[in-house]
Fold:
Amino acid sequence: MSVHARERRTTPARIARPIALHTIVIVIGVFVLVPIVYGILGGFKDNPQLANNPIGLPAPWVPENYTNVLASSDFWRQVFNSSLIALSTALVTVAVSALAAFVFARFAFRGREFLFTIFAAGLMFPFAVAILPLFIILRFFGLLNNPLGVILPQAAFGLALTIIILRSFFRSIPHEVEEAAILDGCSPFGFFWRILLPMARPALATVSVLAVVNSWNNFFLPLVVFNDKVWWTLPVGVQQFSGQYSADTAKILAYVVLAMIPALAFYAVAERQLIGGLTAGATKG
Amino acid sequence: MKTTKGPESAVAASPVPRRLVPPPQPRASKNRGKARKRITIILFLLPGVILFSLLVLAPILLAMYSSVFKWNGFGLLPTNFVGLDNFTRLLDNEIFLGDLRRGALLIVLSLVVQLPLALAIALLLNQKMRLRALYRLLFFAPYVLSEVIAAVLFSMLLSPERGLANEVLGFLGLGTSSFLSEPETVMFSLFIVITWKYFGFYVILYLAGRQSIPKELTEAAQIDGCGPWHVFRYVTLPLLGPTIRITIFLSVIGTIQLFDLVYVLTGGGPVHASETLGVTMYDIGFNRFQVGYASAISVVMFLLSLVFAIGYQRFVLKRDLDGATTTMGGGRR
Structure:
């Protein structure tokens, strides 16, 4: 109590501190914002403007860079591919993980912990290590230039984290719920499908959001799997576009800015699940 | 070991009674129930086990297997066995050795600059201040963007002739820099981009850790006469220990497998000055088709991660998790 009373008095330090605090935070905020704002404004300039006036506002504003990208079917195709692959990845990851997590959480059997440990160790297998043999295996199964060639490996590498998060959630649901369900005639699958999954909706949302974001941003795998530009995702598209038009900075900036809008919009909507999932993933994994 | 889980597994294992019909005698149906339970377990685990074995375990085993062969990547399995030749070649490969040095540099920079910066900002954001939620949202935004987008944005920003960064330096009278096109500066430019992309992630983790520290503890320390520095040094910092150790772990593992950002930002250049293990592996494997040799690099990456993970868990994380990361949750039974 006395501490609070002392703090409340107006001293120079009490005024100076918030100002210092805000200054630091604002400087860092500027560091974060500058590349994004530079991109947005740069997209509205033409190349001579970019060279002579990289800092100021566009004069005049040139919307053609953006409208050209929005009019190109390649861009929309990539948005579609990224969405299709991200949603399918999330669906497969969560469905497969939920089944396994259910068994890991609520059944006792020999080798359970061993098997779970192997799955969880998947967290430590970096994607980059597996990429080369993965390419060979996907080629063997004829999955190159096929969206499944990206969806399935992404789901497989997402299993570890998803199973860990879902298992700990499934464990937290009291046994009484399960007993009541069984007495009312539920099979194990019935309990899982009609009771456990609906109860686990928040956890399912969290792991789905994580899967979507990871898939959306993945670059390495689509880069090696999709030779055919029909299936390029946005990251691959951005990289190829910036290579193709390397002299036309303004055009590239417009493309990059438009490519980041879906991710930022998704972040704005699903911020809570995303951050909840990442902190849960880091502390549990 | 079979039924350590207690009553719920026994109940789950019993056959399905019809609605409103009393459960059958347990003894009579014990065997049928057991078989049923086993089938349920197998069916539920099967999709996960197949997916995981085929697309996670098999690639890693295949990488290990092909790392002792000379192989151009045609077919499913290599045939030209060369023993540890690929690995001895790696020891003479200046680019590979450079990858290791550059990785070490990035790890040191991350631990000395990036993580302390993130910690400081998390502690600032933990205070009551206006627009706190907005700052948090802003700092985390780069993490949500693809590394490709970050890389392309910064390659424009840092471009020597037209980039914004040189304009600002010139305006401040600090001269100009060629950032990404000089071997001397490229690693530091790369590190700035890494920091831009990832520090928000660590801020979020530290914030979550800080918020889980009960208020009573810091208040008690204040009442006992601790100044802000002492509260930080003797209360907050030790209690953030688990979070800090996890972030160090994530940072090191992330650096070992760094690929996207470097590949798009610099392609590993100029003259390999920013190349990482992932980029070298990609180049050797996918551009030069020396799959066996590239697999040897994969194996080195894998072993580095594994040795670090196991050692770190054994000696550092042990205190926090009461078990290894690999048995997460196992300790919570």
